[in-house]
Amino acid sequence: MPAARYWAVIPAAGVVRRMVASLPKQFLQLGKQTVLEHSLDALWRALHLEATVLVSEGHPVLASIQANHADRNLLRAPGGSERCHSVLNGLSALSDQAEPGDWVLVHDAARPCVRQQDLRKLVDSLKQHRYGGLLGSPARDTMKRAEDGAVRETVDRNGLWHAFTPQMFRFGLLHDALQQALEDGYEVTDESSAVEHAGYRPLMVEGHLDNIKITRPEDLPLAEFFLSQQGRL
Question: N or C, which end of the chain has less CB nearby within 10 Å?
Answer without folding.
Answer: N
